[in-house]
């Protein structure tokens, strides 16, 4: 067998494979002899069927199978030994007049080659690294929510200012029928408040959705519809009152602090606010990190310039799926996947140049940390090492979980690298302003 490569350009090549009879005949003969031993053909005793009949019946299929196996094994071996960084898979070139009755066979495969390029982590323009802070307004609102949540509920006979009103929103035309709790301190519309004040359980009022709440996103939750639809909605809805309650705020005392954080962990309103601020900012850090990762990814894709073997990749996409695609479908699919492919190549180079990898032992420890945090959410704050080990072992036996955790751990490693080496500028911002700036 002889394998050679013809370089078309920097991104495309053709590999030629020449197979002679000596490469496959011995294996084909061995398989046919085994077939002869097992063959049951009427008129012949088992094992006594003439070899000529066996070759006539099975010879071509066995030959094709063995040549294809030779091709696959030796082509993969060649690509590995020659250290060819290929995109997609080798594509066999169509050959007119190919003859399986010949003794020697010549095959050609098109290759799409990965481009050579440099990745500069210090991008031309600095990427914003957000530091989200829990401001006084947010902390005070959280304290107020806690006091409400743990306070007493007092039943009322008619609606008064700042009550909580349980009821059902309804609009037949928009197919809305949703039970909810209407908190009057979140209602913005003075007309709506005037309409509700003084009403009793069993009564129905008509309210306008436009400008009903202080924050627009409250409307989607109240009506049980998605936020995009709620933002466009300007209709009248009926609200039938089921129950009216007043919440008497819980006192900020040691009993409440212990209930929230454990005995004597917090002992004053000042410490409570500090704890809320600290816990909130830890959660915000995850959102800020994800934003940073996304922004650096976009920046690297934009600033890292290289060509791809586009024609080859379109052709490969066209034939690699379960069902072949048309030229237009393959072109559309390539355009959708090109950005992702570019980042895969960029990320692969970053990992290689910075020796970043995920080892089994560290992945298992990462899994334990994830399991421990999950258990803490359900009040199991101090699990035994043996318990963590047993759960982690089960998790590591699930390939889908291993893949998901590996991706999370690698994202953490990339984030650490970017924070060390990328061109960043820090911006301190409140959570409210972060949401407005990032998500509009």
From TrEMBL:
InterPro entries: Trig_fac (IPR005215), Trigger_fac_C_sf (IPR037041), Trigger_fac_ribosome-bd_bac (IPR008881), Trigger_fac_ribosome-bd_sf (IPR036611), Trigger_fact/SurA_dom_sf (IPR027304). The keyword Isomerase applies. Keywords: Isomerase. Residues 1-146 form the Trigger factor ribosome-binding bacterial domain. GO terms for molecular function: peptidyl-prolyl cis-trans isomerase activity. Its EC number is 5.2.1.8. This is Trigger factor. It comes from Croceitalea vernalis.
């Amino acid at each position: 067998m002889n394998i050679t490569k013809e370089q078309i350009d920097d991104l495309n090549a053709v590999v030629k494979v020449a197979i002679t009879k000596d490469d496959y005949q011995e294996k084909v003969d061995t398989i046919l002899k085994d077939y002869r031993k097992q063959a049951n053909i009427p008129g012949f005793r088992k094992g006594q069927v003439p070899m000529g009949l066996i070759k006539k019946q099975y010879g071509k299929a066995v030959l094709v199978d063995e040549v294809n196996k030779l091709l696959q094994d030796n082509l993969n071996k060649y690509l590995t030994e020659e250290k060819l960084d290929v995109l997609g898979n080798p594509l066999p070139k169509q050959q007119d007049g190919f003859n399986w009755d010949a003794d020697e066979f010549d095959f050609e495969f098109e290759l799409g080659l990965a481009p050579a390029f440099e990745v500069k982590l210090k991008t031309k323009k600095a990427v914003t690294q957000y530091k989200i802070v829990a401001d006084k307004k947010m902390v005070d609102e959280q304290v107020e929510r806690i006091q409400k949540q743990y306070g007493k509920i007092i039943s009322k006979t008619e609606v008064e200012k700042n009550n909580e009103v349980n009821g059902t929103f309804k609009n037949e035309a928009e197919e809305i029928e949703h039970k909810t709790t209407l908190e009057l301190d979140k209602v913005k519309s003075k007309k709506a408040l005037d309409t509700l004040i003084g009403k009793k359980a069993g009564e129905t009022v008509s309210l306008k959705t436009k400008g009903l709440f202080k924050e627009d996103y409250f409307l989607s939750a109240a009506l049980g519809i998605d936020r995009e639809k709620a933002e466009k909605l300007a209709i009248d809805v009926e609200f039938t009152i089921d129950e009216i309650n007043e919440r008497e705020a819980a006192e900020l005392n040691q009993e409440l602090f212990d209930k929230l954080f454990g005995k004597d962990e917090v002992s004053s309103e000042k410490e409570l606010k500090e704890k809320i601020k600290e816990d909130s900012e830890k959660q915000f850090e995850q959102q800020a990190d994800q934003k940073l990762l996304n922004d650096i990814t976009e920046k690297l894709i934009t600033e890292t310039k290289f060509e791809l073997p586009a024609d080859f990749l379109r052709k490969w996409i066209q034939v690699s799926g379960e069902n072949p695609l048309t030229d237009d479908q393959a072109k559309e699919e390539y355009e959708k996947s090109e950005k992702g492919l570019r980042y895969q190549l960029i990320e692969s180079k970053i990992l290689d140049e910075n020796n970043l990898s995920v080892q089994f032992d560290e992945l298992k420890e990462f899994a334990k940390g994830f399991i421990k945090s999950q258990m803490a959410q359900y009040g199991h704050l101090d699990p035994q090492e043996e318990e963590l080990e047993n759960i982690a072992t089960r998790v590591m036996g699930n390939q889908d979980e291993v893949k998901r955790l590996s991706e999370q751990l690698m994202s953490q490693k990339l984030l650490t690298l970017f924070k060390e080496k990328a061109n960043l500028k820090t911006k301190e911002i409140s959570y409210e302003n972060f949401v407005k700036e990032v998500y509009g």
